[in-house]
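User: Quick sanity check before I run a bigger batch. Here is a single chain. Can you write out its predicted 3D structure?
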Amino acid sequence: MIPLSRRLNDANGQFAGVALATLHLKYFQQLLAQFHIGQEGAIALVLTDRLMLRIPHVQADIGRQMPASPLMEQAARQASGSLEQLSPFDQTVRMINFDHARNYPVLVAVATGKDEALGEWRRGALILTAVMLSLCAVIAVAGHFLIRSMQLRARAEAGLRQARDALGTANEKLAHMARDDGLTGIPNRRYFDMRLEKVFAQCQRIQRPLAIVMIDVDHFKQFNDLYGHPAGDECLKRIATALRSSIRRPEDLVARYGGEEMVLLLPETGAAGALCVAETARNAVADLRIVHAGSDAGQVTVSLGVAAWTPQPEDLPLEMLNAADAALYQAKAAGRNRIQLHGS
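Assistant: Done. Predicted structure follows.
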């Protein structure tokens, strides 16, 4: 039983008696038993310093003096608060919240077992951890396959690039082989014939002049007989290089026409310009000063035949080529190491 008393005053405020009442603890037991506090939870009702009520109910603890504990020490200093404490009764670690009743020496403390309170959270955390670890494993495996796939793709792309580069190099080599003379490195006759057809048709269409310069190395057979074919090959290489240096415009072309014959193709160039280029080419070969004991000049020289006019609709490329060739033979017949313009 919990005794309750209250002073009574009369109308003048004078003492008129005391009202007494008692509260049966069973009422509080029934009231507090409605709260779900778990298997390790507890509710305690402390009157002054003695335990008056405990949920779950333990008869032996009722009326026992509360031992010194962190709860009692903190409750002595604070009206309310919370803490963790090892229970002096059942040795269970509990999380405790307490509060003092207003105007009465009553302390109410509600405790829940720490393990029990955190158990559900821990189980959820374990499940979440397992799920996250599984997800990480899946991501790791997927990442491994993705990286491997990317590496394979990168290697495949590198292989394709190498194959493409190799194919490009091979095509370029084939193009050079199809275009250039294997000995001198300048374009060959096949390429010259293709360019002549194209340039002749263009100059014919726009009515612009075109020039062809046929070039022949003087006494080249004697040079080979005197110095040997390797020396003859080297001589042709040097002459080709000199002729290439004698032209300046990108559209101009020097090619090996066959044997010791070479040819210049000069688009949009009249007779005067063609003669100037021909003289530059002749001097470039002379400046090589290649010794030739079988030549009257004592060195390698060239003869040049020039044909230049504006192609008319009825003209053919072969006609201009034959004209330049005829001029070349005129130059050789006139003593070699000279230039002859067709029709002059």
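The two ends are 151 Å apart (CA to CA).

User: Great, the batch can go ahead then.
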